[in-house]
Design brief:
Number of strands: 0
Number of helices: 3
Low-confidence stretches: none
Largest sheet: none
Strand content: under 5%
Helix content: 40-55%
């Protein structure tokens, strides 16, 4: 898997994921467990939807 989630995108995904999972743990609605998805994609740096959409938020490497 090639990394396709960049810096700010990664921070936002981890923040949103932690927030939603925490809300679920504190008695929020069951759908809040969807926070596991952005948390996982932020921590791994890979989003499976990005290649399908032809996207990447990683900065390009200059040779």
């Amino acid at each position: 898997m090639k990394t396709n989630v960049g810096g700010i995108d990664k921070i936002l995904r981890i923040g949103a994921g932690v927030g939603l999972v925490a809300w679920a743990l504190l008695g929020g609605p069951a759908w809040a467990w969807i926070g596991v998805v952005p948390l996982a994609t932020g921590l791994t740096g890979f989003c499976p939807a990005y290649p399908l959409l032809g996207m990447s938020t990683c900065p390009t490497k200059k040779d």
